[in-house]
Amino acid sequence: MISLIQRKKNKLLEKIQDTPFIRAYVPGNAHREYKKPDEVYIDDDELWLYFEGNPDVWFFDMIYVQHKRYLERIGVNNSICMQHTYYWRNYVPILDCFSYHERGLEGFDYRWTVDGLDFATQNPNFHRSLYIWEEIARPYQHLIYGIVEISTNQNFKDSRRVEKASIAGDILRNTQWIPDKEGLFHSPDSLCLEDLPDEFTRDEGLSKKLGLKDRPLKDIAHEVGVDEDDLILFQQITKNKEFLDLFRDFAYKTVRKQTNNHDTDIFSYITSLEDAFSKPSDILIEDFDEQLDDTNSVLVNPVRRRQKTQEEIQNSIHNEPERHQRYDLVPSIVWDKKDSSVRTFLLEQYHGRCQICASTFNKRNGMPYFEGLYLVSRIGAQWVDRPGNVLCLCPTC
């Protein structure tokens, strides 16, 4: 009984959708006509912005405002109509004929069309162009330009690949619809992303699909702080795979050689500590008016503490890893992270106060600010990364 009722409903819906019974009009024109549901758009501000002035687009009459939800259910459009095939397993089946087969790669379908796009791009204004960029071009950029695989075999053996633009993509790539910062409209190939108004999202992927110009090398060089000629050389290296492999091999060997030379150095903590205290000071140390409150720094059992520290150091020295185990070649050297317990010790022992001037200040989270200064660089050996080798200091000391 239910299936019979449902079949009747479906049949009625088919008749309704095929009947031009909805009163519709073109914006700016008093003329009214009756249209099929799928030939009409709802009265929406964004759709008005996109279709305004288009003589071929119809909106439902205002008498249906209260019935908007029901009109959408029978097929009245609430978004811009597009025609394309959704992909399956990354492929879009396009043609499947005897001895000739086509499919789009990565969701590309060169048959993609967008209702009203030709008119909208040929009659641009700032808000309309922004809408096209954000709501059509960006979400559907994989349909603008892509690769079609062609083969005489249905399994696509011995296929060839062709790059091309879709129907809508060709309009977007070759029409002067994108504004610059001055409000003048250009075709994509005459602009780069930096020329667009701030309201337009910087999308590198979309830029490539539309064919926008690359950013000027001199601007990139200035931003990263390198010479433009060096950047050009780097581009040439990266484009040539054989040369790039040689360059990487040379860089790796250079870093390895420097590392091996450094690994032969014999580490001496005593010598390094003497060097640290022998360095001349950059500032003149004067007498401080405030005296350190060292009541929190007095050890209850200094002998036991000294013995325990010696045991820990001896154990750490015994378990000291090989030097090459403490870094990775990338090809630069990335050392292991600092021991977080050292900073915790300084906070508990000195409450964040400088060991020289006893000053500190609280950060936004309420914790005292201080800096841990290693007397001897922890790079010398891993066991050096411990509280006894670090001073708790303020930014000025």
Summarize the structure in words.
This protein is α+β, with helices and mostly antiparallel strands. The chain folds into 3 domains: 72 residues, no CATH class; 134 residues, no CATH class; 106 residues, no CATH class. A hairpin with a 2-residue loop joins strand 6 and strand 7. 17% of the residues are buried.
Uncertain runs with pLDDT below 50, 5 residues or more? none
Q: What is the gyration radius calculated from CA atoms?
A: 36 Å
Assess the beta-strand content as a share of residues: 15-25%
Give the strand line-up of the largest sheet: 2-1-4-3
The global form is elongated
Count of strand segments: 16
Order of secondary-structure elements: HEEEHEHEEEEHHEEHEEHHHHHHEEHEE
Distance between the termini: 88 Å
Features:
397 residues, alpha+beta, 3 domains, four-stranded mixed sheet, four-stranded antiparallel sheet, 16 strands, elongated
Which helices and strands appear, and what pairs or packs with what?
Layout: H1 2-17, E1 22-25, E2 32-35, E3 40-41, H2 45-51, E4 58-60, H3 68-73, E5 82-83, E6 91-97, E7 100-105, E8 113-114, H4 117-122, H5 126-137, E9 145-151, E10 160-165, H6 167-174, E11 178-179, E12 185-186, H7 204-210, H8 217-224, H9 228-239, H10 241-263, H11 269-278, H12 302-318, E13 327-329, E14 333-335, H13 340-350, E15 371-374, E16 390-393
Parallel strand pairs: 3-4
Antiparallel strand pairs: 1-2, 1-4, 5-8, 6-7, 7-9, 9-10, 11-12, 13-14, 15-16
Q: What is this entry, summarized?
A:
36% of the residues lie in helices and 15% in strands.
